[in-house]
Amino acid sequence: MTCMTSTARPFLNRRLAEFGTTIFAEMSALALSTGAINLGQGFPDTDGPEEVREAAVRALRDGLGNQYPPGPGVPELRTAITAHQQRRYGLSYDPDREVLVTAGATEAIAASLLALLEPGDEVIALEPYYDSYAACIAMAGGRRVPVTLRPHDGSFRLDLDELRDAVTERTRLLLINTPHNPTGTVLTREELAAIAELAVERDLLVVTDEVYEHLVFDEAEHVPLATFPGMRERTVTIGSAGKTFSFTGWKVGWVTAAPELVTAVRSAKQYLTYVASGPFQYAVAEALALPESYFTAFRDDMLVKRNLLTAGLEEAGFRVFRPSGTYFVTTDIRPLGETDGFAFCRGLPERAGVVAIPNAVFYDHREEGAPFVRFAFCKRTGVLEEAVKRLRAAL
Questions:
Q1: Of 45, 140, 173, 253, which sees the most CB atoms within 10 A?
Q2: Helix or strand (DSSP H, E) at 233
């Protein structure tokens, strides 16, 4: 049946017109249709700790969170979040006034940008960026201004002069992601100090996505931007249970910030999901209190998987940028005689039985990301070994 309408105006809001079906949906469909190993989308293929899963079951059975939880999040989780920030980073937050639980980090980002931006405000984001950033800025009526991370000495680095030059009188907010998806870069203490000085000097708000805070490798360290002078009162810090505890489907994220900022973000969030993930909030509260041995073992396991995949990709002919954080590795396909990441990734399932993501989808400047391709290593060791075997044989 033909859909009839009295107007020729497109159905989709023009702010979202540039955003079609995500590349993740396309690549996941290719994985299903070809039987390829999916190293594209960043979700683990095993569940997290059994005691955390049992905590969720116990909450369900005990009737905890089966009805609407409190708007800011259940007190147990808000208290656990503040204890985590204090214990790890020396950041003190009031669980009643400075914490907001969200439906994953994605909602935290959306609510923060919807709350803090007026139409026409400029937002500086580090390019390549997680794809929801662009859509959320657009929905808020903001204008994104990308500052590109570029390859340098085996990793992707931020040009601080370029960042400073990008700030104008219309700049409202810096959107920072460290550890950084998709490049695996972890901003150094010196880089973060320079960002903090710029934010204070130009009176900018900062939203910082730190969902991979527990996945840093080698000599890298994660330092929250809110710990720097003048930053606590202007920084919205976003965290998430999905990446740390391997329960991505639970969608439990959070915001920590000064009371005025949390109030603003909550004002937007209450009209998005209102509340979510009731029983899982109680389970995540217990997860955040796990002993340090859990976090160490989790990181060490991912480090082994990172090394397995990066070594295999190098043997297959890719130039590999060894990540200092996250569970993604970016590669350069030019040594393989390829230059178009989209074409390469669309052909890889049939060619090698493996799915990856073209980094160009994370760029405004598509040409900057054209030769780069991202693989995820948050998979079982046997899956990674088979993927590496297939890539070596095909390429």
A1: 253
A2: none
Tens-digit pLDDT profile for residues 241-293: 999 999 999 999 999 999 999 999 999 999 999 999 999 999 999 999 999 99
Give the DSSP H or E segment for 203.
none
User: Which run of H or of E encompasses 331?
Assistant: strand 328-332
By the 8 A CB rule, do 27 and 345 touch? yes
Cα gap 283→138, rounded to integer Å: 34
For residue 153, pLDDT over 80 is answered with: yes
- In this model, does residue 9 exceed pLDDT 90? no
User: According to the model, what pLDDT value does residue 177 have?
Assistant: 98
Peptide bond into 119 cis (omega under 30): no
Q: For residues 298 and 312, what is the distance between their CA atoms, to the nearest angstrom?
A: 22
Look at residue 109 and tell me whether its pLDDT is greater than 60: yes
For every residue of 92-145, DSSP letters joined together read ---TTTSEEEESHHHHHHHHHHHHH--TT-EEEEEES--HHHHHHHHHTT-EEE
Q: What angle do CA 232, 237, 238 make, to 5 degrees?
A: 170
The pair of structure tokens assigned to 145 is 């201004």
What confidence score (pLDDT) does residue 211 get? 98
Residues in the chain: 395
Tell me the average pLDDT of the chain.
96
Decide: 19 and 144 in contact? Cβ < 8 Å.
no
Exposure string of 61-78, with b = 16+ CB inside 10 Å and e = fewer, is: eeebbeeebeebbbebbb
Question: CA 97 to CA 314: how far, in whole Å?
Answer: 49
3-state SS of 242-297 is HHHHCCHHHCCEEEECCHHHHHHHHHHHCCCCCCCCHHHHHHHHHHHCCCHHHHHH
